[in-house]
Amino acid sequence: MYEDECRRSLAEEQAKSLAETNDWEHVDRERVHQDWDVLYREIAALLDGGSLPGDQRIQELVRRHFDIVCRFYIPSREAYVGMSLFYAEDEAMRAFHDSYHPGMVEFMGAAIKVFAEQGSGFAPSAGAEASA
């Protein structure tokens, strides 16, 4: 099943990255959380405006989300979809995301799947590493 493959990819890729980077010690966690906070507030506002997961503006925001994730490690397409499943299936992650908007987890899951299907580049966009 594709979702199981995505969950497995996420677990394997994160474990490998954590082991290689001393638990992501290179990541400025405070900055990451600030950047995610700004991003999720923007997405929540667009959700209230009736935006759809495949809308260009939403996909630009998902690209920003992906670029923030890439500060930790560059996930495969399957691992990135696996991350959206983790958001939905982990109680604390669901609560965190849905604190921005009650439909955030489902919306992000759908938007991440669109991003993965379009597959226009599973590498950080220019400048993403510099802002890490």
Provide a short characterization of the protein structure:
With 132 residues, this protein is mainly alpha-helical.
Write up this protein.
It is a single chain. The chain has 132 residues and is mainly alpha-helical. It has helices at residues 2-20, 29-48, 56-69, 77-89, 91-98, 104-118. The longest helix is centred in the N-terminal third of the chain and has 20 residues, at 29-48. It is globular and about 40 Å long.
Element-by-element helix/strand order: HHHHHH
Which structural class fits the helix and strand makeup?
mainly alpha
Low-confidence stretches: 127-132
Q: Largest beta sheet, briefly? A: none
Average pLDDT score: 90
Distinct helical segment count: 6
What Rg is obtained from the alpha carbons, in whole angstroms?
14 Å
List the helices and strands and how they pair.
Blueprint: H1 2-20, H2 29-48, H3 56-69, H4 77-89, H5 91-98, H6 104-118
Keywords:
0% strand, 132 residues, globular, mainly alpha, 67% helix
